[in-house]
Specification:
CATH topology of the largest domain: Aspartate Aminotransferase, domain 2
Radius of gyration: 21 Å
Strand content: 5-15%
Order of helices and strands: EHHEHEHEHEHEEEHHHEEHEHHEH
CATH class of the largest domain: Alpha Beta
Bound molecules: pyridoxal-5'-phosphate
Number of domains: 2
Strand order of the largest sheet: 2-8-7-6-5-3-4
Number of strands: 12
Amino acid sequence: MKSIYLDHAASTPVHPEVAQEMMNVMTGQFGNASSVHAFGRSAKRTVSSARDRIAKYLGCHPDELVFTGGGTESDNLALFGVLAAMDGAGKHVVTSSIEHHAVLHACEELEKQGYRVTYLPVDGTGRVRAEDVEQALTEDTALISIMYANNEVGTVQPIREIGELARARGVLFHVDAVQALGAIPISLRDLPVDLMSFSAHKINGPQGIGALYVRRGVHLAPRLHGGLQEKKRRAGTENMAGIAGFAKAVQIASAHLEERREHDLMLRDTLIRLLEQEIGQDAFIVNGHPSEFLPHILNISFPATDTETLLMNLDLEGIAAASGSACTSGSLELSHVLQAMKLPQNVLRSAIRFSFGLGNTTEDMEYTAQKIATILRRLRIRS
Ligand code: PLP
């Protein structure tokens, strides 16, 4: 049976060159980057070289990057870290209702600690309005946290506009760029952003490693206490192989950004076109923004069925797709993102996320469209 992976927004296969780089580090180097002997110095060089390469691509200073255990930790470090460093000077946070749970659940925890959080609405395409951000700001606002692009529907947010008004009002701005990295160009030099979260496993790097960009001058209180690593911002022996793999993944992603974009757009268009042929354009609805979207994320509702039935049937045909956000799939609860977009119930309850990446081909799209048509026919006969 075929096996087609269309869940790259959840996690991606590690690129062979990344795996090789990590293998070289794991077998050739075992020192601790904090040790003063030659082994330690060599480990330190590996970590610094990786940091330099990632910083160069992102357009920031190497010392503005803090390595973390992934996107979730980066989001948590950003929110709790800057607020703790402010020591209660601002007790209000502005975020959106479509953030990843790494931000939303962190905000709920902040509320328990006495912070006030505004969860902004989005329009029907999943986009936050900059005017809403502006209106939500108060004298007490300490931080704005809005994602670069959404992980369920791919909608890209007006980050520059929000960043400019944050600057004008002197409010710190955090951006979760976990899905945007490797999909659209990011230049921190040109963006009015103070903190940005990244994760390696969404760009064909290893799981369990990520980074938080912290603009020079932004104070961040550590969440982990221990050694002096990461300029006292994140204690713990560095994940050297993970960091080296992350840098390799960033290098590969940056070298192939345009190529990947075109390939993903082609796959996306192909799947939509084939679905139109196979089941007719009235049988499905594409969710998200018509132009401001990440090319690798395609969210489609099939109102004749429901998410769970379709996902299970696709799985039986060897096709791996997703529902809702990655971390809640499996439990299949209704997506908070699609709910915030106020989609009709039948659209909300029948949405599937297809996300493309390394290894996907036009043939995969043909197979997927055919199988969807077969499944929908079978379900119609049964009902
Ligand atoms: N933020 C977004 C937008 C994501 O899509 C994800 C992962 O799905 C995360 C944060 C969490 O990243 P990680 O899995 O590296 O903890």
